[in-house]
Amino acid sequence: MPRVVLCLTVVLLASTVALGVHGASAQRPAQPLDEPLTADLDGDGVAELVRARELSCFGPGGEVAPPCPPSADLRTLVVEVADPCAGAERVLRLSREMEYVSIADVVDADRDGQARELVFELRAGAAARAVQAKVVAFRAGADGCAAVRRTLFSYPRTDTIGRRPKGTFFSTGSIRLRDFSKRFSGLELRTFESYGRATDPGCCPSYTRTTFWRYVKARSRYEPFRTRLTRLR
Ligand SMILES: [Ca+2]
Ligand SMILES: [Ca+2]
Fold it and tell me: Cα of 142 to ligand 2 centre, how many Å?
C-alpha cells in the first residue's frame, strides 16, 4: 500500500473524530454507545447495560461537567457494564479512560451459540492513534452480578501486536470482528497496525501488518492464522 493512502486514512479518521473540535458547527459526530447496549451478558435472565460513562467534557466554553452537551466535542469516557443486581446497580469498568468509541457490539465470539460477548474499540489523541480494544466474556458471579469470565482478546498487548521490523515502533492499530474466513466457523478477528521509524514524517509509517485471528475453543483464546507485513513505498 502506498504510504500516501495510509496517510489519507489516518487523516480522515483523525478529522472525523476531531470534526467538531475545529469546526464551526460544534456537534459531536454520532458514535457507538451514544445509546447504551442492552444484553444478558452473563446469561442469568436479566439484561445488563453496556455504556460509555463520560468522565469529562470540553466544549467551546471550556470544561463542563458530564453529561456532556452535544457542543462538547471532546470527551473522556470509560466503557462499563451496569448490572441491576444484589439490590443495587453494580458497575464493572472494562476500559481505561479514552476519548472516542469506534466499535461497541455484543456478538457470539466464543461460538457457543449465544451472542453474549462484548467487543469494543476506543481511541484517543488528536489523530486518534491511541487505541484500546477488547473482546470480553462474562459469567454470573456468586453474588448474582455480572463478572468478567475471561478477556478473550486485548489489544494492543505484546501477545496481540505483530512482530515489528527492526528499528520500528508500534504506531497505531485497529481491530474488526467479522466472518473473514469460510475455513473457520463463526467470526474471525482482524488486526491492522502500522509501524514507524523515528525518521518517518509524523504522518506516515513505514510498514503495515494485517493479521487474522480465529477463536480456539479448546484454549479459550484467539490465535493468529494469517499475517502479512507490507513495506510502504
Ligand atoms: Ca444478566
Ligand atoms: Ca457466546
Answer: 20
- Whole-number Å distance, alpha carbon 1 to ligand 2 midpoint, is 35
What cell does 232 get?
510502504
Helix, strand, coil % in the chain, rounded to nearest 5: 10, 50, 40
Cβ–Cβ under 8 Å, residues 81 and 91: yes
- Please report where in the chains the cell 509501524 appears, as a residue: 195
Distance 108 CA to ligand 2 centre (A): 4
This prediction's pTM: 0.88
Q: Using an 8 Å Cβ cutoff, are 146 and 92 in contact? A: yes
Coil, strand or helix: which one is 16? helix
Ligand 1 geometric centre to CA of 37 (Å)? 13
How are beta strands 188-196 and 100-107 bridged, if at all?
unpaired
Question: What gap in Å lies between CA 60 and CA 70, rounded to an integer?
Answer: 11
Tell me the CA–centroid distance for residue 160 and ligand 2, in Å. Answer: 21
**CB burial class (10 A; 0-12, 13-18, 19+) of residue 62?**
exposed
* Grid cell for residue 96: 481505561
For 130-162, the pLDDT digits (tens) are 999 999 999 999 888 999 999 999 999 999 999
Nearest to 154 by CA among 132, 184, 174, 139: 132
Ligand lying closest to the C-alpha of residue 117: 2
Residue 187's DSSP bridge partners are none
The grid cell for 198 is: 523515528
